[in-house]
Amino acid sequence: MRREALTTPDGDELLIDHIEGPLGSPRVIVLHGLEGSSNSVYAQGLLFEIRRRGWRGAAMNFRSCARDPADLARMLPNRRPRMYHSGETGDLDFLARTLTEREPGSRLFAIGVSLGGNVLLKWLGEQGANAPVDAAVAISTPYDLAASAGHLDTTLGRLYTQRFLVTLKRKAAEATRRFPEAAGRIDLPRTLASRTFREFDDAANAPLHGFAGADDYYRRASSLAFLGGIATPTLCLSAEDDPFLPRATLDRARAAASPSVEFMVTKRGGHIGFVGGGLPWRPSYWAETFAVDWLEEKSKGLGVEASRG
Fold it and tell me: Which positions ≥6 away from 285 have C-beta within 8 Å?
């Protein structure tokens, strides 16, 4: 990958990892999930499939999530007193319009996974017919953040939650150390004591990013309320056994979505766990392939020449 540092309108740095290909070929923006990066397994799988077709990829590392290429265990800090969250669409909009301005004649697509899927769908709904992408795919999207946070407050869900809270707490503490503005917003003792996403969001994530609390954040950041405004051809891939997604939320998402949104729901797949293959020691992570295949079909309908490498 080739790393590019884009200076954001608010003076921060947005790190984009590019996969290069023929000039003029379609480019796909890849958005990772909570506490992921361009080096996450599913992001690497998507970039591999993109490159295999002779296309180009642009993996956007959310602020505070980019990793040092020489030490992948080390996450690089950002310059502003903020991190990222499920409803923050400004950086995606900035990247998409930057890429469009550079190559106005090239097709631009997007794939978002988990939190990245929520960001992508919310942004598409906000932009409506003005979205500068030709088609999009969202994988394992939570849709309703409040419902997902409650659904995760189970034995299995807590296994996911605790894993993420380790690094989220560390980042929040670091933000209070580096930025007086963050120290004035984050309730650090409550943050460090949090055991659920709701507790963490209420103490740190919501106030840091200008929300009144967890409930306000969940209400305003959930993509569910924006699905009806999507005008871009979009595929939503979900599994019925996703621990982040109550079945009722999936039904509500289908009912709320515009005709531009297509849903594919499997019985199994968990959260970003769409595994196939005939032998247990040779699994096939088919969602990555399926997502790019779907975009390839859409590109043919748009008159874009697509070829496999």
Answer: 41, 42, 45, 274, 275, 276
Catalytic residues: 114, 242, 271
- pLDDT tens-digit map of 162-198: 999 999 999 999 999 999 999 999 999 999 999 999 9
Q: Say how far residue 118 (Cα) sits from the centre of its chain.
A: 6
Q: What angle do CA 194, 60, 104 make, to 5 degrees?
A: 150
Higher-pLDDT residue of 160, 230 = 230
Rounded CA gap, 116 and 141, in Å? 8
Same domain, 205 and 155: yes
CATH number at residue 81: 3.40.50.1820
Taking the CA atoms of 232, 40, 191 and 193 in sequence, report the sign of the dihedral they define: positive
3-class DSSP state of 277: coil
Domain-located, residue 230: yes
Instruction: Calculate the average pLDDT of the chain.
Output: 93
Burial class (CB within 10 angstroms; exposed 0-12, middle 13-18, buried 19+) of 136? buried
- Answer with the one of 205, 221, 237 that is the final residue of a domain: 221
In tens, the pLDDT along 99-128 reads 999 999 899 999 999 999 999 999 999 999
Alpha-carbon distance 133 to 260, whole Å?
Answer: 13
Q: Domain residues for 153?
A: 145-221
Same domain assignment for residues 74 and 214 = no
What is the structure's pLDDT at 308? 28
165 shares a domain with 54: no
Global pTM reads 0.95
Residue 131 has which token pair? 């979205």
* 309 found inside a domain: no
